[in-house]
Design a protein that fits this description.
The complex is a heterodimer of chains A (about 220) and B (about 800).
Chain A lengths: L2 E6 L2 E6 L4 E3 L4 E4 L6 H7 L9 H16 L3 E4 L7 H5 L3 H12 L2 E5 L13 E3 L1 E4 L2 E4 L9 E3 L4 E5 L2 E8 L3 E3 L10 E2 L14 E4 L5 E4 L3
Helix pairs in contact in A: 2-4
Chain B lengths: L8 H10 L5 H8 L5 E5 L6 H13 L9 E4 L3 H18 L5 E4 L5 H9 L4 E4 L1 H8 L4 H4 L5 E4 L2 H4 L3 H16 L4 E6 L5 H8 L7 E4 L7 E4 L17 H10 L2 E5 L3 H13 L7 E4 L5 H12 L5 E4 L12 E7 L5 H8 L11 E5 L3 H15 L13 H14 L4 H8 L10 H13 L13 E3 L5 E3 L4 H7 L9 E6 L7 E6 H5 L6 E4 L2 E9 L2 E6 L19 H11 L9 H13 L8 E8 L2 E7 L4 H17 L4 E6 L4 E5 L12 H13 L2 H13 L21 H11 L4 H12 L4 H11 L3 E5 L8 H4 L5 E2 L3 H18 L7
Parallel strand pairs in B: 1-6, 1-7, 2-4, 2-5, 3-4, 5-6, 8-13, 9-11, 9-12, 10-11, 12-13, 16-20, 21-25
Antiparallel strand pairs in B: 14-15, 16-17, 18-19, 19-20, 21-22, 22-24, 23-24, 23-26
The chains are: A alpha/beta (about 220), B alpha/beta (about 800).
C-alpha cells in the first residue's frame, strides 16, 4: 500500500497518499472534512453555482480508499457535510451511494462545527470516539494526547509544491481535508504553533506520501 | 459661414484672449459634433482632450441643459482626476455654467451617492465605475439627458477586456439614451478602421479625423563605451551612459518591459547617482500613495528622471519630459511609437527617444524597430470576437439593474462592434451559465442565480445577490498579490505588493527590492508581508511575473529580413561581427525555412530551433518538442526559450527533425499537454473570475480563514473530469491559445517554413546559440522525474533534521 507508516501511542498507523489515515490492526480507515454538498450550500447562500460534482468526486475517492484497504470501520472526523441542510439536499444518487458504502462496514460520524446534528443516514454518531489507545475528535484539544483530529485542513510546502498534508507529532495527528472542494491552511500558520511539537512532521499527500519536518 | 462661428462667442473670446487659435482637428471635431460616432487620432500634446470636449462646452454654454451631458471614460483613475483639473480651469475662465466631477473607485461613497441623484454636466470616470453605475436600478434616471460619451486612450482600451466591458456598457447607455453620440480619442494606431468599428454602435458609420502627426520623432540607439552583454535583460552596462543623458535633459522617462527589471535598474542607477539627482520609480506594484507622490513630483517638474513600466504609459500629464529612454528591445513597434509620442509635450516639436538594447541580440531587434518606426510600419493583430466571460459578467450586471428580456438584451449587446457577430446560441449559453451554472448535471435548480419570471423576463432569484455581483465587478486580473508593509508597532507604511508565490519562497532574513529600497523579510501577518529596511545587503530580487511581451510578428519578420543583408553597416561593429561569425560557422536563420543547429556542449546533445515566433510561442514549442522527443526516446533534459529560438538539451543527438514538426502531432500534443498545464489553469482562473463563478470578494469575508476558500485549480480539475465541454472550459481553451500559449504563431511559423527544415550538425555551439545558454528561465523536463526529485529532497531534509532517526 502506498503509505507512510508511523506510531502514535503504540498504534501503528499509515498516512495514505489519498489523505486518509489507515489503522491496519483495527482495519479502520479515517477521513476528515469531506464537506459533501458544498456547491449546494454555496448556491443556496447567494453565491455562484459551483460545478456540482464535488460529492460524486469525494465519494469516488473514498470508495477507492475503502476498497484498497478493505476497511471494516470508517471514521468520518467531522465536517462530513458542508452543513445539515446540505446533507438533506444531497441528490438521491449520492445518498444511495453513501447508503451502499455504509452497508458493509461499521460507519462512525464524528460531529464537526459544520455538521453538529446527526445525519439522517444511519451509522453511529458521536462528539468524540475512543478506540484502543486513540481518541478521535474533530478539533484538536491542546491538552489531549494520542489524538486524531481534522478541522484545520493543513497543507505544507516542499520546493515550490504545496499539498494537503498530515501533521504528526508524538501527541497527535491532524488530518488533511479529504473533500474535493476544500482549501488548506499552511502548516506555518500560527494556529498550529500551540498544537504541534518542535519535531512534528508534515506528510504531504500525493502519488506517494512525502514526510518532511513540518514547515513553520 | 466663418470658420470660428461654430463656437459660441464666450469660448471664441477665451481662445482669442489667450492668443490661441483652434487646431484644424479641433475644428473638424466641432464640425462633426452631431455625427453618431467620431474617432480622433492625434499625437499627445495636440490638444486632443480639448478637441473631445469643445463640442460639449459649446452645447453647454447657454446653461439650458439639465442633468448629465457628457461622460468621459479613461482607462486610468489618475487621468480622470487630471482632466477634471485641466478642464475646470478653462471652464471657470470662460465663466461657463458647467459642473464637472469625477467618479472612480477612490471617490467617497457620499459623493458617489450624490452623483447618482444629481449628476454633474460632465462626469469623468473609468470603465469599471461606469459598469457599476449601469448596474443600479436608477441608472435610467442618472443618465437622463446624456448626449455625448468621450472615450480617451481608446487604442489602449480596445486591446483589453476592459474595453469590451466598456463597449457593452455603452450599448446599454445607448438604449437608455438613443441620441447618444460617441467620440474616441486615440494615439497613432496601425488600423484606425478597426478602432472605429469597435467604438461605433454597430452598424453605425464612424468618421475618422486624423490630426497632423507632427514632425517625425528623433529616435536613436544609445551609444555606449561598453558593448551590451551576450544575454540578460538588465542593461546594467548602460548605466553611465544613461546617467549622462539624464544630466543633459530636463526630465527623462526610462521605460522597462518588466517591473523586476525596473527595480534592478533603479537600484543600479542610484548607486551611480553621485550628484544625488532627484530620480523616482513608478510601476504598478507600488503602493498607490507612493505612485501618486511620484506623479505629483513629476507634474511639478521636480524629478530629473523616472524609472518606470507601462503603468506610466497612459494619459498622465508628462510635463516637461524631453527624453524617453527605452531599456530593452521594444518588442512591439506600435507601443514604442505611442510611448515616444508622449515625450516633448509641445505640439510640433519632435520627440526624442533613445533605445538601449539589453543584450547583443536586442541590438539587432532595436535596429529593426528603428527602421519600422521610420517606415511607419506599425504592428498589430486583429483581436478576435468579444470574449464571452465579459459577456457573462455583463448579463449579471444587467440583472442587478432589474428584470431583463433576453431578446432585447441580445439585440442590445450585438450593437457592440466586438459582439456584433455573436451567434444567439452562444449568448444563450452565457445566459444559461449565469442562471444555473450551465452544467451537464442539473442540480440545485431551486438556488439558481437568475430566474425566469412568468412574464418571460429574467431576474435575480435573491435580490441580495446584487451586492455580491457588484463587489466582484471588473475585468482586471491581478495575480494573487500580497501587500508589503514596514513592520512597526502599528500601521506600518505600505510599500506595495508582491506575488503570493514569491512571498511563499521567502524566509525571515531574505532581502528583496521594492520601490527602489532593499528590505528584509520579517514575516507574514494576516496576508501582509512585513519587512524592515535593510540598506547595504545585496537583495534577492522580487519576482513580478507581470506581462512578458513577445516580439511581434512584424518585428520578427524585419529581423529575418535584416539577416539577408550581405553586411550590416547600420549595426555597431560588435554586433555585425557576431552575425558574420554566425554566417561563417553555421548560417543565419531565414524566413522561408526553419534552421536547427545540433551540437554537443558540456557533455550533452543540444539542439537550437530558430523559430522566430516570439517568447510565448517558443516556450510552448519547447514544451511540445521535448514531449515529442521523450516519446521518440531522445531523452530531453530541459530547454530555454527567447523571442527567436528554443534551445533543447538532452542525452541523444537530434538527427531527424522532420517528425518533430508534424503540425498534426504538435496539435495533438498541445491538446493533451495543455489540459493539465498551469497556463490553462491560470487562464481558467481569469475567465471564471470575470464570468462570476469565482468571487474574489464576498460579504463578511474572513480575513484569515484561508482554509475556507479553495483553489480555482480544483474547479478546473473537476470540470475537466466531469464536464469537459462546459462553457468556461471552452472560453479557457480559446484564451490560452490566443494568449500565453500563442499556438497561433507556431502554426504561422510552420506554414511559413512549409516543411523546409535545415539541420546543421556542428562540432560546437554556434555564435547565435551561445547567448541562450546564459538565459534565465530554463525549464526542466518534468514527469515521473518530478516525484523522484521531491522524494530525494524529502530524504535529504529528514536526514539533515535528524528526524529520520526517530522511532516510527
Amino acid at each position: 500500500m502506498n503509505g507512510f507508516d508511523f506510531t502514535l501511542a503504540g498504534a501503528r498507523l499509515t498516512a495514505l497518499g489519498s489523505g486518509a489515515l489507515w489503522w491496519a490492526e483495527q482495519r479502520t480507515l479515517c477521513v476528515s472534512d469531506l464537506h459533501l454538498g458544498k456547491s449546494e450550500r454555496h448556491a443556496r447562500r447567494g453565491g455562484s453555482a459551483l460545478p456540482p460534482y464535488e460529492t460524486r468526486d469525494t465519494l469516488d475517492r473514498l470508495e477507492t480508499a475503502l476498497e484498497i484497504t478493505g476497511a471494516h470501520t470508517l471514521i468520518c472526523l467531522g465536517d462530513s457535510f458542508d452543513d445539515d441542510a446540505a446533507c438533506r439536499a444531497l441528490p438521491q444518487a449520492d445518498l444511495n451511494r453513501i447508503t451502499c458504502l455504509m452497508q458493509t462496514r461499521r460507519w462512525i460520524w464524528i460531529e464537526g462545527n459544520h455538521d453538529p446534528a446527526p445525519p439522517a443516514l444511519g451509522g453511529e454518531h458521536a462528539a468524540a470516539l475512543t478506540l484502543g489507545p486513540l481518541t478521535f475528535r474533530h478539533i484538536a484539544d491542546p491538552q489531549s494526547s494520542a489524538e486524531i483530529s481534522g478541522h484545520y485542513h493543513p497543507k505544507a510546502r516542499l520546493r515550490s509544491t504545496s499539498r494537503p498534508a498530515f501533521l504528526v507529532d508524538a501527541a497527535r495527528v491532524i488530518l488533511p481535508a479529504f473533500g474535493t472542494y476544500t482549501g488548506g491552511l499552511r502548516s506555518s500558520d500560527p494556529a498550529f504553533a500551540p498544537l504541534m511539537a518542535a519535531d512534528a512532521l508534515a506528510i504531504l499527500t500525493g502519488p506517494r506520501p512525502l514526510p518532511v519536518p513540518m514547515p513553520r | 459661414m466663418g470658420r470660428m462661428s461654430i463656437l459660441p462667442p464666450v469660448i471664441e473670446n477665451w481662445f482669442a484672449s489667450k492668443g490661441w487659435s483652434i487646431h484644424p482637428h479641433q475644428h473638424a471635431m466641432l464640425e462633426r459634433a452631431s455625427q453618431p460616432c467620431t474617432l480622433l487620432i492625434a499625437p499627445t500634446g495636440g490638444g486632443k482632450t480639448m478637441a473631445g470636449f469643445l463640442p460639449t462646452l459649446a452645447e453647454l454654454a447657454d446653461g439650458s441643459h439639465e442633468g448629465l451631458h457628457t461622460l468621459y471614460i479613461s482607462p486610468l483613475k489618475a487621468l480622470a482626476a487630471d482632466i477634471k483639473r485641466n478642464l475646470r480651469t478653462p471652464v471657470e475662465e470662460m465663466g461657463l455654467p458647467v459642473r464637472i466631477d469625477d467618479r472612480t473607485g477612490d471617490t467617497p461613497s457620499s459623493r458617489k451617492k450624490r452623483q447618482r441623484a444629481d449628476p454633474p454636466h460632465i462626469l469623468l470616470t473609468t470603465p469599471e465605475s461606469l459598469a457599476l453605475l449601469t448596474s443600479y436600478e436608477d441608472a435610467a434616471r442618472t443618465f437622463k439627458g446624456l448626449k455625448r460619451v468621450v472615450v480617451d486612450e481608446i487604442h489602449a482600451l480596445a486591446e483589453s477586456k476592459r474595453g469590451d466591458q466598456l463597449m457593452l456598457a455603452l450599448a446599454r447607455l445607448q438604449t437608455l439614451c438613443p441620441d447618444l453620440r460617441r467620440i474616441g480619442l486615440s494615439a497613432t494606431v496601425d488600423d484606425p478602421q478597426a478602432i472605429a468599428s469597435y467604438l461605433a454602435r454597430h452598424p453605425d458609420p464612424c468618421d475618422i479625423v486624423q490630426a497632423d502627426p507632427g514632425p517625425a520623432p528623433d529616435i536613436r540607439m544609445l551609444e555606449t563605451a561598453e558593448p551590451p552583454p551576450w544575454a540578460g535583460g538588465g542593461a546594467a552596462y548602460a548605466i553611465p551612459a544613461v546617467m549622462a543623458q539624464i544630466k543633459a535633459h530636463n526630465t527623462t522617462l526610462i521605460f522597462h518591459n518588466t517591473r523586476a527589471q525596473a527595480e534592478i535598474f533603479f537600484h543600479n542607477l542610484w548607486l551611480a547617482n553621485e550628484d544625488a539627482l532627484p530620480i523616482g520609480i513608478h510601476h504598478g506594484s507600488l503602493d498607490r500613495v507612493q505612485r501618486e507622490r511620484v506623479e505629483a513630483a513629476m507634474v511639478r517638474g521636480e524629478l530629473r528622471a523616472i524609472v518606470c513600466t507601462g503603468s506610466l504609459d497612459l494619459g498622465i500629464d508628462w510635463g516637461d519630459v524631453d527624453l524617453v529612454i527605452q531599456i530593452g528591445a521594444p518588442k512591439n513597434v506600435k507601443r514604442l511609437v505611442q510611448r515616444i509620442g508622449r515625450a516633448n509635450h509641445r505640439y510640433n516639436a519632435p520627440s526624442k527617444a533613445l533605445l538601449v538594447p539589453a543584450n547583443r541580440f536586442e541590438v539587432v531587434e532595436c535596429r529593426a524597430a528603428l527602421e519600422a518606426v521610420r517606415a511607419n510600419d506599425l504592428d498589430g493583430a486583429p483581436r478576435g470576437p468579444g470574449p464571452r466571460d465579459v459577456l457573462c459578467q455583463h448579463i449579471l450586471i444587467a440583472a442587478c439593474a432589474g428584470p431583463f428580456d433576453a431578446d432585447q438584451l441580445y439585440a442590445e449587446i450585438t450593437q457592440a462592434g466586438a459582439y456584433a457577430s455573436l451567434p444567439r446560441a452562444e449568448f444563450d449559453a452565457c445566459l444559461e451559465f449565469c442562471a444555473t451554472g450551465g452544467y451537464a448535471l442539473k442540480a440545485y435548480d431551486q438556488w439558481q442565480r437568475l430566474r425566469k419570471r412568468p412574464d418571460g423576463k429574467w431576474q435575480l432569484r435573491d435580490p441580495r445577490a446584487a451586492a455580491r455581483i457588484r463587489m466582484n465587478l471588473g475585468t482586471i486580473q491581478d495575480t494573487d498579490l500580497v501587500k508589503v508593509r514596514l513592520k512597526r508597532t502599528r500601521g506600518g507604511k505600505p510599500l506595495g505588493e508582491i506575488e503570493e508565490a514569491f512571498a511563499a519562497t521567502l524566509t525571515p532574513g531574505d532581502t528583496f527590492l521594492i520601490g527602489g529600497q532593499t528590505v528584509r523579510y520579517e514575516g507574514l501577518r494576516e496576508m501582509t508581508v512585513e519587512v524592515s529596511r535593510n540598506p547595504g545587503k545585496k537583495p534577492k530580487i522580487a519576482v513580478f511575473s507581470g506581462t512578458k511581451f513577445a516580439t511581434s510578428t512584424q518585428l520578427s519578420a524585419r529581423i529575418l529580413e535584416m539577416f539577408k543583408q550581405d553586411s550590416w553597416p547600420s549595426l555597431p561593429r560588435h554586433t555585425a561581427e557576431w552575425l558574420e561569425l554566425q554566417r561563417e560557422v553555421s548560417e543565419l536563420p531565414r524566413a522561408g525555412s526553419l534552421l536547427i543547429e545540433s551540437f554537443p556542449h558540456d557533455g550533452r546533445a543540444h539542439a537550437c530551433v530558430y523559430g522566430f515566433a516570439g517568447r510565448n510561442a517558443q516556450q510552448t514549442l519547447g514544451l511540445l518538442l521535448t514531449k515529442r522527443m521523450e516519446e521518440l526516446g531522445l531523452d530531453p533534459l530541459g530547454f530555454v526559450s527567447t523571442d527567436y529560438a528554443t534551445l533543447i538539451w538532452g542525452l541523444e543527438e537530434l538527427t531527424d527533425p522532420a517528425p518533430l514538426f508534424d503540425i498534426g502531432a504538435l496539435r495533438e500534443g498541445l491538446e493533451g499537454w495543455l489540459a493539465g498545464n498551469a497556463v490553462m489553469k491560470r487562464a481558467f482562473r481569469g475567465a471564471a473570475t470575470i464570468a462570476g463563478l469565482i468571487e474574489r470578494n464576498t460579504p463578511g469575508q474572513r480575513k484569515n480563514g484561508r482554509q475556507a476558500t479553495f483553489s480555482s485549480d480544483i474547479l478546473y480539475d473537476t470540470l475537466r473530469k466531469y464536464d469537459p465541454d462546459h462553457l468556461l472550459m471552452d472560453i479557457t481553451r480559446e484564451e490560452a491559445l490566443r494568449g500565453l500559449v500563442d499556438f497561433g504563431r507556431i502554426e504561422e511559423m510552420i506554414a511559413r517554413i512549409d516543411g523546409r527544415i535545415t539541420l546543421l550538425q556542428l562540432q560546437r555551439i554556434s555564435p547565435l546559440a551561445a547567448p541562450l545558454l546564459l538565459e534565465a528561465g530554463k525549464v526542466p523536463v518534468k514527469g515521473a522525474a518530478e516525484e523522484k526529485l521531491l522524494l530525494r529532497e524529502t530524504e535529504a531534509l529528514m536526514q539533515q533534521s535528524g528526524l529520520s532517526a526517530l522511532p516510527q
